[in-house]
């Protein structure tokens, strides 16, 4: 799955300390709010752009100097946001915004958002620096790490291709174990980082970092667990049936008894994707295809051109570069870039559709008339949802046909793709359960046996056996746990959002069953996405945007229909 640098909250800026002005002569709260936002943007905007540039360069190069600049840039932002006088100035404005005392809803929304960002930084400056330094070190370790098998260093793409194609169980095991060794590299730093994050959270009055991050991203922990409990019940039975079929096929293909299947038999390091065990090869249409041209043609055809993004991006493997994929908006004025490591297969076709989905839901299409602070996606889950909405087409033979890509044995491809797509939704849902439950428990009790906790969740939700006698920090091998904490549940919520938006679009534009709708060469799709999803920017909460775009609150109904569980 792609790793994306998303901004969890909007950054804030300075204002005149309220304590300097007697209460009886205070200016109107609306004037105060306008002044705060003006100063806020003037101070933080250049710092943000500088940090985004430094972050981009560090992930491209992987070298020490660039990571040092990245850390320095983040420290400048943290210092600006940790000013207690500024926070004291924002607090009464937040209360006024919540009471409806600020007339302009866009101003009120900005105040609510910067309050949360200031709140996060109201801890000792030295603690913030320690957190940034430790997080920076962990991220760099991931970027420069390459698995080694029999003394040979192999790229992430080689890890994936081996797990996908090899029928040699011993080789698969070697490659899988090699990919996990990054966990041991970062384990100690991650433990310290968890401790520091929890220290910051408790200083601010939260139970732990996980609870704090949910609050800061305007999510309710109780509601979140209730949603995932519902998803667990909804997906458990169909997932179990799908996995039984997958296991039987893997057993036959690899010559391994079903009850002897291990994690390295599931075609990707974390079993977050559907194994390629069906009759048709979904990679075949893409082996000789121009993936970037397909993306360009597709997005241009629906009225959301992305050629400017491609021109600014870094898209192929090289030493030191992050082996993952992400999209970032540098300045909220259209400088949007994608980092990728393209290989000609279905995985990278889907990944590029995903990352460029983030790109179109950015300042490329969010109106420049919105204030800078609102010129971003409504929430992490909404941008992930849009990316997933477009990503799903990589497994569609009908989409390939409309895009002019020839598919040999179309019937077999259709049958295989339908199973893979359905399985993908189920498998990913179960994987997200592991990530959410593990992270929540880790921050609640970081001193417990985390290896044991990890595998208990993997066995419960993914039904994958822990290798006998294995005691390694496999949880730390997942980059999100280190570098994008308390994020992963938004991928699953994004899947729900993707299904809901697609169903709403299918009804509004085509009046057909969503499963039959492939939007290629139809600029009405871009118009719909702009009007219903992109145009509000961050002026609406994620709950408000979901209702605005789909007519319903976020729920699993459309998602369930998409994997035929209803």
List its traits:
single chain; 566 residues; mainly alpha; two-stranded antiparallel sheet; 21 helices; 4 strands
Describe the structure.
It is a single chain. This protein is mainly α and 566 residues long. The chain has helices at 29-61, 64-81, 84-99, 105-120, 125-144, 156-165, 169-203, 209-216, 221-254, 291-301, 307-312, 346-360, 380-391, 397-402, 410-444, 450-462, 479-483, 489-510, 523-534, 542-550, 557-562; strands spanning 147-149, 152-154, 326-329, 336-339. It has a domain at 18-122. The strands form 2 sheets. It has a two-stranded antiparallel ribbon. Strand 3 and strand 4 (336-339) form a beta hairpin. The relative contact order is 0.11. Mean pLDDT is 93; it is low at 1-26.
Fraction of residues in β-strands: under 5%
Give the low-confidence spans.
1-26
- Percent of residues in helices: 55-70%
* Strand neighbour order, sheet with most strands: 1-2
Number of DSSP helical runs = 21
Task: Tell me the span between the first and last alpha carbons.
Answer: 26 Å
Coarse structural class: mainly alpha
The gyration radius over C-alpha positions equals 23 Å
Averaged pLDDT, please?
93
Secondary structure: elements and pairs:
Layout: H1 29-61, H2 64-81, H3 84-99, H4 105-120, H5 125-144, E1 147-149, E2 152-154, H6 156-165, H7 169-203, H8 209-216, H9 221-254, H10 291-301, H11 307-312, E3 326-329, E4 336-339, H12 346-360, H13 380-391, H14 397-402, H15 410-444, H16 450-462, H17 479-483, H18 489-510, H19 523-534, H20 542-550, H21 557-562
Helix pairs in contact: 1-2, 1-3, 1-4, 2-5, 3-4, 5-7, 6-7, 7-8, 9-15, 10-12, 12-13, 13-18, 15-16, 15-18
């Amino acid at each position: 799955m792609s790793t994306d640098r998303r901004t969890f909250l909007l950054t804030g800026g300075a204002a005149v300390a309220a304590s300097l002005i007697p209460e009886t002569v205070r200016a109107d709260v609306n004037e105060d709010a306008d002044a705060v936002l003006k100063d806020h943007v003037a101070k933080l905007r250049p710092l943000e752009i500088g940090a985004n540039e430094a972050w981009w360069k560090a992930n491209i190069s992987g070298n020490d100097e660039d990571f040092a600049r990245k850390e320095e840039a983040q420290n400048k932002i943290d210092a600006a946001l940790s000013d207690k006088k500024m926070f004291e100035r924002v607090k009464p404005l937040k209360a006024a915004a919540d009471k409806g005392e600020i007339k302009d809803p866009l101003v009120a929304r900005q105040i609510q958002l910067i309050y949360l960002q200031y709140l996060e930084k109201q801890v000792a400056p030295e603690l913030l620096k320690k957190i940034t330094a430790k997080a920076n070190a962990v991220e760099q370790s991931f970027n420069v790490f390459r698995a080694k098998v029999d003394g040979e260093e192999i790229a992430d793409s080689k890890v994936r291709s081996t797990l996908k194609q090899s029928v040699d169980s011993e080789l698969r095991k070697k490659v899988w174990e090699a990919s996990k060794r990054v966990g041991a590299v970062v384990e100690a730093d991650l433990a310290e980082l968890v401790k520091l994050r929890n220290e910051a959270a408790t200083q601010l009055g939260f139970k732990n970092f996980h609870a704090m991050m949910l609050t800061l991203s305007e999510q309710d922990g109780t509601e979140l667990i209730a949603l995932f409990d519902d998803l667990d019940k909804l997906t458990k039975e169909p997932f179990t049936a799908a996995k039984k079929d997958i296991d039987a096929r893997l057993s036959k293909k690899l010559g391994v008894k079903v009850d002897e299947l291990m994690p390295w038999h599931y075609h990707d390091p974390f079993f977050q994707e559907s194994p390629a065990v069906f009759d048709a090869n979904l990679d075949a249409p893409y082996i000789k295809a121009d993936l970037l041209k397909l993306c360009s043609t597709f997005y241009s055809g629906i009225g959301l051109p992305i050629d400017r993004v491609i021109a600014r991006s870094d898209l192929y493997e090289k030493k030191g570069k992050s082996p993952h994929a992400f999209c970032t908006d540098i300045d909220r004025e259209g400088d949007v870039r994608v980092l990728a490591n393209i290989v000609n297969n279905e995985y990278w076709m889907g990944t590029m559709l995903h990352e460029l989905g983030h790109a179109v839901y950015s300042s490329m299409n969010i109106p420049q008339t919105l204030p800078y602070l609102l010129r971003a996606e409504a929430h992490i889950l909404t941008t992930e949802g849009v990316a997933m909405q477009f990503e799903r087409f990589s497994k569609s033979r009908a989409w390939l046909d409309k895009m002019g890509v020839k598919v040999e044995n179309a019937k077999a491809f259709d049958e295989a793709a339908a199973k893979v797509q359905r399985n993908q939704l189920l498998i990913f849902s179960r994987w997200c359960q592991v990530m959410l439950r593990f992270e929540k428990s880790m921050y609640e009790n970081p001193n417990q046996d985390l290896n044991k906790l990890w595998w208990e969740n993997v066995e419960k939700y993914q039904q994958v056996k822990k290798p006998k006698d294995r005691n390694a920090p496999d949880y730390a091998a997942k980059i999100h746990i280190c570098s994008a904490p308390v994020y992963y549940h938004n991928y699953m919520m994004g899947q729900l959002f993707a299904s809901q938006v697609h169903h709403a679009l299918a009804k509004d534009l085509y009046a057909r069953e969503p499963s039959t709708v492939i939007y290629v060469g139809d600029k009405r799709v871009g118009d719909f996405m702009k009007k219903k999803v992109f145009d509000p920017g961050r002026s609406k909460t994620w709950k408000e945007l979901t209702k605005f775009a789909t007519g319903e609150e976020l729920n699993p109904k459309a998602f369930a229909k998409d994997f035929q569980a209803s």
